[in-house]
Amino acid sequence: MQMALLMNSSTSTHVLYPALKTEEPKTENMVSIFDSNLLQNQVNMPKEFIWPSMDLVNTAQEELKEPLIDLSVMKSGDEEAIASAAELVRKACLKHGFFQVINHGVDQELINDAYCEVDPIFNLPINKKLSAKRVHGGVSGYSGAHADRYSSKLPWKETFSFVYNHQNDSNSQIVNYFKSVLGEDFQQTGWVYQKYCEAMKELSLVIMELLAISLGIDRLHYRRFFEDGDSIMRCNYYPPCKSSNLTLGTGPHSDPTSLTILHQDQVGGLEVFADNKWVAVRPRPEALVINIGDTFMALSNGRYKSCLHRALVNRYRERRSLVFFVCPREDKVVRPPENLLSKNEARKYPDFTWSSLFEFTQKHYRADVATLQSFFQWHSSCNL
What we know:
4-stranded antiparallel beta sheet, Jelly Rolls, 20% strand, 384 residues, alpha+beta, 8-stranded mixed beta sheet
């Protein structure tokens, strides 16, 4: 089997959600090789990829009834239309934290180009991919099934991630990254993702304005907070899996970041846990899926929900998705704006920096529905 897993530390689990357990990441680097073709030829599914039945039940039979927001209203100057869109966002974020946007200003051709660059990355020889692997606790680089972090419940996927600095003076920061880790042949790939990240940044700031309006605060508050951020771009590749009933492409989790902007291909597989059941998020080629993350949940003092979600794998078809995780600058202090809090409303979370939460999820804890609570417990114990 083309996978080596080196581990010495013990695993601790926490019951954090009905029928959901999580595993702490390993405290040292692990070596991983993910070759789905070879793994598929094994007589039995490798145990590292088998998820507990409690995480696999209730495959969605219904679709999420999330609103479809027309973002063109944000440039229209029509305050009534903007208020109506904000109200739809508010209702969705109070309930489950998911909505989709259309007329978002991101060129469909650019999205198509970004998908065209996914396969050249994941079709590289395994040694080339491993030469660009993500370091333990880091962000950027290749990961095969996240086996550099976990020893069990591995996701059936490969990822390639990189940081996009909103304030970087260079208009070629992503180009330079691709050339440095994958070589000159990937210069064009770097240019495509450079443009994609620039478009995602601009879109994210518009959405931040809409979120501020929906919460009844200064329209520019969150825009200003995130305009100098350090966001994360990720390409996801989910190979077909003949034992798809035993594994997951991404396990149940809430995003620890602030806002997730996702485009999924038409294969489908994204599911949200809402109303005590798993429901599917319909792929829409013209739309982008937006979901609230833990950090924005804290910025809204817990009003807006960072919802549990997962991704299935397909037995016959490859699945791809493009994800932009919106994050503040790493040293920004995360706290809700004062005018969001009513006189008798207590703070639900203490102040923290994004870098401290991110380090916790990368080095100590596998993100789940209770990441924030576990982070504050851990942080308190470290300061005793």
